[in-house]
Amino acid sequence: MPYIGKSPVGGGFHKLDALTASATATYALTLGSAAYFPETANQLLVSLNGVIQAPQDSFTVSGSNLVFDTALTSSDSIDFVVALGDVLAVKTVTDGAITANKIGSGAVTSAKLDTNIAVAGNLDVGTIRDAAGTNTAITIDSDGVILTPERPAFSVSHTIAGSAGGLTGHIQFNTVDTNINSCWDTTNYRFEAPVAGVYHFSFTGMPANDAAGAQLAANSSSIMNIEKSTDSGSNWSVLANAYNYQSTGTSFPNSSMSRAVTLDSGDYVRINVTTSYLYITNISYPYRPTFSGYLIG
Prior knowledge:
The chain has 297 residues and is mainly beta. It has strands at 14-15, 26-28, 30-31, 34-35, 44-48, 51-52, 59-62, 65-68, 78-83, 127-129, 136-140, 146-147, 153-157, 164-170, 175-180, 184-185, 190-192, 197-205, 207-208, 220-229, 237-246, 255-263, 268-281, 290-295. The strands form 6 sheets. Strands 14, 16, 17, 19, 20, 21 and 23 form a 7-stranded antiparallel beta sheet that branches. Strands 15-13-24-18-22 form a 5-stranded antiparallel beta sheet, with no helix packed on it. Strand 20 (220-229) and strand 21 (237-246) form a beta hairpin. The radius of gyration is 44 Å and the shape is rod-shaped. The model has no long low-confidence stretch (mean pLDDT 89).
């Protein structure tokens, strides 16, 4: 690029114009009778009375002036002043000049990357972790299968010691098959959402006519609800329900229901039978009503 005045010469060494000592500490530096401006005293080699002087200790520079730490006399001799190369300012790097070999291993850290990175090609990733680098969020195996950590999930049922019976009201599922993240409250017999998100719930059971577990009689109906509470169990709203009506005969009709629903952290979900009973047996063909749910995302 063009320069105003003399362009710098990389690595240039100059013997500056001779200086005559007098009763002063300051001397103007020139090169070819033009003022010379060193960038630093460390750039100069100065000999005074046959002794090389220490930069910063014995002399400094101020603009184009050489300044000794004490005033000289006319009997002193400034033998020479040599400039040990020109100091160049950092210039713009030519496009394409920085190659992969010029970047040290590990030199590009996360702090040097933009917070939003767009990838036009393929991004090959085996594991994705949280911001702290502690917990694994997603793992992609060699077959392309995406594996995620365990999410909140539960599967419960109800068992009895006797031969058969019927359950009504808030069903107290007392047998826990799965309880990931301890989201099923084994004391209050309800699911508690540990985090906000979309959850899926499903229930299956058979209506019964009474607490003894008798078959649903003719002209009988049953209603079973999946219910949600957003106020610590004080009030409940229906998410899904199953309704059965039997006009003739006696049987245990199958009832099932499922629902995907958005919950906030701390919301409760339960099964509530408002009409008839749930059949349960522990005889030769045991049957247990079941309730399950899990976090979708």
